[in-house]
Amino acid sequence: MTVNDQPTYNPGKGEGSPVGVALLGHGTVGSEVFRLLRENSDEFTHRVGGPLEIKGVAVGDVAKHRGSVDEDLLTTDAMGLIRRDDVDIVVEVIGGIDYPRELVLAALRAGKSVVTANKALVAAHSAELAEAADAAKVDLYFEAAVAAAIPVVGPLRRSLAGDRVESVAGIVNGTTNFILDAMDATGASYDDMLAEATRLGYAEADPTADVEGHDAASKAAILASLAFHTRVTYEDVHCEGISSITARDIEAARSAGYTIKLLAICERITGDDGVTKVSARVHPTLVPRDHPLASVTKSFNAVFVEAEAAGRLMFYGNGAGGSPTASAVLGDLVGAARNKVHGGRAPGESTYANLPVAQFGEVTTRYHVDMEVEDRVGVLADVSRVFSDAGISLRTVRQEESGDAARLVVMTHSAREADLSETVETLKKLDAVKTVNSVLRLEGE
Ligand code: NDP
Ligand code: HSE
Question: What's the family (predicted)?
Fold first, then answer.
């Protein structure tokens, strides 16, 4: 029997009742969701078990979308669209927090499953949204909210539900990776690359969310919640962005054999009090140039998961942009629609572990401290003493002339964040130290 003679399996044969979809937003992501839904509608009918029918497309300004969306589908009344009886599933790709929160809650409370790409909303209001979904026994899907096309929410929610995740870490913001990669590879300017990332549709409506790390912090909160079965919100994540990273930092990293990446790091740590806690942080980080994360270029993302039984897993792919994000949205939409047609629900929120969230000061890592110091005898000894007084061991010290001063770059062994930050404050007060140019953390060795 050849493969072609095999009987096909097509439950429901696509003959189930139509599933009505409300699309809220027709921007970078929404327009691709709309296009792919239209272009592949037959395929979706088979995968779902019944046709997916777009009942309306809510936008901010109807005039902008004439020609690309059938006029009778366009509306500015998102709430009215959600409440229509023929709408079963709501796809929210508007962005922001307050208004989409109202819309998503209204949809869930009306018994409609929701698919959203909105990490800011999920990271800020996960409890309320999960409760509303549970109360109405409907689904809340948000695969696209973390790392766009890369399936990482689903694997954490389902595939790794039988394992104990120890850490989740990686590059989860395409815009900042695009900027840092270009600055490192070509010496391009920060401002030019931010403008380009915005033009390409990677950046948020307000790109401050990207460059100041807020977008990655929302994603870190979502990842930590899923990985550790504990509620972690945006407010719980320590967040530093890349807006203060200079060409000089990048050059210093390069000459020491590193590249700078904005990393999100979520881990279980044992706090100063011996209690197991969850730590989630986002900051620019030095990564060795031969580490797999160093080869994640452009707007690509990569997420490492370390689990007790599975070991190390790496997820890599397109982390931003209209069609990669639409892929994740549509995967969720098919899941929600299948549940509507055949019954069943997606896994909901799981926060039973209820671990406390660690203070940032309790985190342990290694550091790269770049200083301008006086060029005279005894300076190195003075600086070393400040580190040793705090119990921080130095790994390498590099000094070079810089005009009438000297530039001193110190790399440390592992130290507590609280000790390092106290040390930096002491260094700033030392006569021999003119300025502390930057403090960057090191990971991946
Ligand atoms: P855009 O700014 O490109 O699109 C937003 C859409 O929402 C526009 O169509 C806009 O309408 C519409 N809109 C704005 N206000 C309203 C309103 N009051 N009522 C109805 N519609 C409204 O955003 P993106 O597509 O880039 O992002 C959407 C979501 O997806 C965000 O949550 C974002 O974080 C997330 N996301 C984005 C990714 C990306 O790479 N871009 C990747 C992963 C997630 P109009 O066009 O008329 O102004
Ligand atoms: N602005 C986000 C980024 C979009 O650059 O990663 C994907 O979530």
Answer: Belongs to the homoserine dehydrogenase family.
